[in-house]
Amino acid sequence: MSFVIKRMYRGETSWNFLEVSGRVLIGSAVAVLICVVALLARGLNLGIEFEGGGVWEAPASEQITTDTIRDAASTIDMNDARIQRITGGDDIFRVRGELPSGETAESVGSVLAKAAQVDPESVSARTVSPSFGDQVAGKARRALVVFFVLIALYLTLRFEWKMALGALLAVAHDIALTVGIYALFQFEISPATVVAFLTIMGYSLYDTIVVFDRVKDNERSLPLKTRMTYSDLANVSLNQVIMRSINTTITSVLPVISLLVVGSLVMGATSLQEFAIALLIGLLVGSYSSLFVAMPVVARLKQREAHWAEQDRNAEVISASNSIENAATTLAAERYDRTSPPRPRKKGRRR
Q: Strands 188-189, 92-97: parallel, antiparallel or unpaired by DSSP?
C-alpha cells in the first residue's frame, strides 16, 4: 500500500482512467437523473430570503413539543407553518410561515412565547417580503449565467473550446448533484447556500484546469505527441496529477467537516450547516468530476481531430501487427516442435 502511495506521489502510476470512464459516466448520468427527478418531484426547500414570510425562534424546553407550538400557531391562522426543533448548543423551536393578516411579528412572537412558556423578549423574529425574495433569486440566477459565460470565454482563450465544454459539463454535473441532494433530503437553501454553490464551481474549475494544464504541457512535447494517442496522453496526465487532486481535496474537506461538526452540531450555528453541507458535497463531487467527467469528454472530442484520429489508426495497425507477429511466432514454434525429429537420449555410462 505504501509503495502504491509513493508511486502516486511521484506520478509513476499507469492507471487507465479512460478505459473505465464509459462505465463511470453512465453511473454519473444515472445519479444526475435521480437528482433531477428528486428536484422535479419534491422541489427545493427555499429559505425565507427566497420565498418571503417570517421566521420566529424561541428557546425549547424538554416538556414542550412541536405539536404544542403547532397548536398555538393554528390559533392565529398559521396552519401551514413549518416547525422544527433544532438541537445543538441551546435547543430552539424554529417556526416559519406567512405572517397572518391582522397580526404583527411581535404579536405572533408573543403567542409562540406563551406556548413555549418563555419570556416574549427571548423570541427572535425576522420577516422578509416576497418581493425581496424574488430579487435575491433573480440576482442568483444572473450571477450563475455571468459565471458560465465568463468561464467559457476564459477557458476557450486559455486552452480551446473543447476543454471549455468539458469543464462546463463537469461544473453542471457538480451543481446538478449538489442541488439534487438538497432536494432529496430537503435541506434548506439560503443565500449562504448560494454562496457555497458558487464556491463549488470555482473549486471544480480549479481542479479541472490543473488537469488541462498538465495535458497541454505534455501535448506541447513533440516526441511525446508523435508517439502517443490522445487517450494515452490523457491517461499519463491524469496519473501525474491524481495525487495533487487527492491532497487538495483532503486539505479542503477537513476544515469544512470541522465547520459542520463543531460550528453546526456542537455550537448550534445552523447557518453554518447550510453553507458547510453544500461545500462538503461539492468538494467531493468536484474532485471526482475533474478526473472522470471533464477529461473523458475532452478526450472523446479530441479523438475526432484529424491528427489524433490518425494516431489512433496507427496505434491499431501497430497493435494488429504485433498480434500477427506474436501469433506467427507461436505457430512457428509449435510447427517446429511437431516436425523436428526427437532428440536422441543420452546413454548413461556403464560402470
A: unpaired
Q: Are 186 and 45 in contact (CB under 8 A)?
A: yes
Give per-residue pLDDT as tens, 268-291: 556 677 778 888 888 888 888 888
One-letter amino acid at 272 equals L
> Which contacts qualify for 104-108: CB closer than 8 Å, 24 or more apart?
105/54, 105/56, 107/76, 108/54, 108/56, 108/76, 108/78
Residues 62-119 pLDDT 10s: 778 888 888 888 888 887 788 888 776 577 888 888 878 777 888 888 888 888 888 8
> Which domains are delineated in the chain?
2-45+132-303 (1.20.1640.10), 53-128 (3.30.70)
Condensed to tens digits (0 to 9), the pLDDT of residues 185-239 reads 888 887 778 778 878 888 888 888 888 998 888 888 755 555 678 888 888 888 8
* Predicted pLDDT of residue 328: 47
51 CB-near residues (< 8 Å, 6+ apart)? 130, 133
Specify whether the CB–CB gap between 187 and 277 falls below 8 A: yes
CA 68 to chain centre: 40
Question: Under 8 Å CB-to-CB from 36, ≥6 apart: which residues?
Answer: 176, 180
Report the chain's terminal Cα–Cα distance, integer Å. 59
Tell me how many degrees the CA angle 77-83-85 measures, rounded to the nearest 5. Answer: 150
Distance CA 117, CA 11 (A): 64
Q: What is the DSSP letter of 87?
A: -
To the question of pTM greater than 0.85 for the whole model, the response is no
